[in-house]
Amino acid sequence: AGGGRAALRACGVHNVCRLLTRRAHGFYARDAGVAHRKNLGLLRKIMCQESTKFKNVWTTHSASPIAYERGRIYMDNYQCCITSIAQQPRILYQKSKCAKSEKIEDALLLECPLGEMLPSPSDYKASLIVLTVQNWLLRLSADSGEVLEKVYLAGSCCKFFRYLSWDTPQEVMIVKSAQNKLPAAARQAGIQQTVLFYLAVFQVLPLSFIGMLEINKKIFGNSVTDVAVSNGILIVMYSMGLVRLYNFKAILEQFMEQPFDLGQEFNWNGQVGVVGKYPFGLPCNIKITDTPPLLFEASSLENAFQIGGYPWHYIITPNKKKHKGVFHICSLKDNALAKNGIQDMKCCSLEPDWIYFHPDMSGRIIHVGPNLIKVLKLKEVKNHADQMEIAEDFTIVANRENCVNNSVTVTASGRVVKKRFALLDDDPEQETFKIVDYEDELDLLSTVAVTQIGADGRAHLDFHCNEHGILLKSIPLKESWDVTYSHEVYFDKDLVLHIEQKPNRRFSCYVYQMVCDTAKDDD
């Protein structure tokens, strides 16, 4: 503390806020991360220059899904890894084709935490955690595909684990089973299935087992349709649109029967084995015997529920089909609707608009419609400090200057023709927003807008200033974009990657890289 005050005096700054602002701008050369921040600032300026182009340097096609994670392209069910960081994408490793029993169901990229001592040198490098169809959890080297660790999940009872997710990113991982369903014959015989899901909880790096628990009808009710864990909250969803939140950490502490470590020999409910080894797997050592204290509940159409902002607010859609596309922004503290808290774009479109809290942790809200993106902010109501209102921060509008949608036209012969219907807001022949994303390292908001005329669709990726929404750069994508296909676009510093899924499980991947060239050419 004394050293911090001395630093403040030495630089002539006596206000903490000013000090933090100056540090963020890189005023102190000895401060950790200054060089990295400067480099990213330079990269952003270079990238947004008019002379900077993005060139399609690589294209591939596949009969199996293509995935992208932090500069690595995965193909053939994660058996082939291609680095996209090199000037020309190249294969990092290619493993032999795996059997159906070894098929990978889900994967998470695991990156080394900063400032921590880890037990193994391999822990300091990025790795991939994968879940196989036969209930094996594997940690693979991200650079070679070598198996670093393996854990068998399922024990004596039949658990089909299918999903990986983060509770706390890069710290606590959740492995979720598919929903347990009895065969038709068993249901006809009157056999009752009370366990709906299993959740296995792991600490990562080093990989360690925290516990396994079951989501049971007897505890949470008969109409449970799904569960999730995020940021220490157990989220339980019900068929009638109800969403209930519970303190997940408190559940682990209260109902843990006995802790176990991976590799530990155990004698559990008459079973003798080794934790995480075949054929015993993991013990279900967290038994919820009573309904945990309820933190919060809300009713929302299709269980759509989000929490964010400052102070805490949540977004729901009233639980009636006629309200689809209407969003209510309410205070988490007292459920009070914020002033101007009902957001409705009144879109007439095939695909609905969507809304979410901005991932830049600013507390803002992004609302995306077919031709309009609204970035909203929470602020105090004047003269009412305890009440919040929703205000518009900035908007981004699709380019529809050349679009003419007259309901009455006159032919060359003078005959008046009236249209019987109006164009939809997301009609393919009008420029329509399809994807909105945020690049955190460059602090840029990216949008993909598409116009399709006949069979030929054209898309462009735009970069906007995240603070004010000003258009900084537009990149045309060379390949045709069919709005009926599924698309993913990744913007990762100096790389743009487009993954397309066509009918009959045909996949394509297009890689664009930044090219700085003052010469005027087609690249």
Automatic annotation (TrEMBL):
GO cellular component: Cul4-RING E3 ubiquitin ligase complex
Pfam families: DCAF17
Domain of life: Eukaryota
Keyword tags: Membrane, Transmembrane, Transmembrane helix
Spans traversing the lipid bilayer: 195-215, 227-246
Record GO biological process: protein ubiquitination
PANTHER family reported in the protein's UniProt record: DDB1- AND CUL4-ASSOCIATED FACTOR 17
Protein name: DCA17 factor
Lineage: Eukaryota, Metazoa, Chordata, Craniata, Vertebrata
